[in-house]
Amino acid sequence: MSFTNTYETHVLNYLFTATSVTRPVASNLHLALFTADPTETGSTSSEISGSGYTRKAVAFTVSGNLATNSGAIEFPTATGSWGTISHVAVMDASSSGNMLASSALSVSKAVTTGDVLRINAGELDITLD
What we know:
Number of domains: 1
Radius of gyration: 15 Å
Structural class: mainly beta
């Protein structure tokens, strides 16, 4: 996953200046689904909407330079086509809010009526090198 430009700046300010940065609330992190790359600008124009879609809460555990989802993330049953999901992003709110990081899926997934998209624990990784 790549941090958005906003959060890259937050990290640099935190590490190299005395500038105060606002930390996202860990208990309010949500995973969002996208049909196109939201880019490092954090654009939500290709986020899924309607047909039963809602962002899902996500929690992470950290070990070394790796943060991974600590529990399964299961989206609600699609009541219509969501299209082909190609990207995910960690957001700081259940709606609106700010994008923290985003990534392409290793395999895109078409979600149609009646499908349930599930990401098992340990399958969503964020690393810093």
